[in-house]
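> agent: user asked for a holo structure of the chain below bound to S-adenosylmethionine. Plan: (1) validate sequence alphabet, (2) canonicalize SMILES, (3) run complex prediction with ligand conditioning, (4) return tokens. Step 1... ok. Step 2... ok. Step 3 dispatched.
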Amino acid sequence: MYMDSASNIDGQMSIFDFIDHEQGEVSNGIIRLYNEDCFETMKNMKDGDIDLILTSPFYNTNKKAGKNLTLENTPKVKHGRRVWVRYDVHVDNMTDDEYCDYSVNLFNEFDRIVGQNGGVLYNINYGAENTNGMFKAVNAIITQTNFSIADVIAWKKKSALPNNCSPNRLTRIIEFVFVFCRKDEMKTFRMNKKMVSMRDNGQKMYENIFNFVEAKNNDGSCPYNKATYSTELCEKLLSMYAPDGATIYDPFMGSGTTAVACKRMGLNCIGSEISTNQVKYEIDRLKNEFFTMQDGKDLFYKLKE
Ligand SMILES: C[S@@+](CC[C@H](N)C(=O)[O-])C[C@H]1O[C@@H](n2cnc3c(N)ncnc32)[C@H](O)[C@@H]1O
């Protein structure tokens, strides 16, 4: 059963909602889902509420998905599939300049809600239809916000759509995960890297963690979103960057992959998603995997009225 009305979340959201005030301890594995524009959700967060952002935004790479096409309003086109359309509600047709401005506004808000030494794990890729747009957006972020690129991780997927109709373009089997940190936290931003030894001169030596992750493409088909990532990817990234008991925010929650990974790892997760169908899908997904999850206990959600 879904909530008929807008919400099972009362009042303002804050990190302090994760604290059991009687025990004085932070609770783990609490999931809060907001069926709204991520800027709305972030507006209600206090400064520094979030430890780490893990997300995959819309890529804005699909010019053919322009003209206001969505999975909801597009007739099936080829072999029964709406081949160029990825989302049920979101229309993926900003200009590159609009996408840059959007990304800058987003990261300025991340700057406010992410606590000291927290970071942003940002999965994004270029597409055959728009190779440059992603790089322009990344450039806008690093030149117009307080964030810088700390690392770039190559995510090698299990499979890729062969680009056989092109005589000269590569088949894209990797995607990027940009690790952003604040410019003035480059030496201090958090990572779960273990020290392995200390040299005679006192220099600390750390384990090697490579900037290459192999993980499944996705967790299966979602009828409302054709651009989902996998819990395997999320779990590998979270194990690299999320402190114990951290609060993770995914502003573009889609089918709920980040939330499932967080729940498995005992992390708190807040997600925003504009598609009501996808938020309902997320709730079902969580309840199917975690039988003991309960509304108002470890699962909170706000559906559109
Ligand atoms: C690439 S998908 C995310 C997929 C997700 N990582 C998953 O595994 O299911 C991007 C999602 O962002 C959502 N979206 C677009 N604009 C949004 C906004 N302003 N606020 C919240 N969600 C938004 C889209 O509806 C889409 O589901």
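> agent: step 4 complete. Summary for user: The chain has one domain: 15-302. Helices lie at 38-43, 96-113, 133-144, 231-241, 257-264, 276-289.
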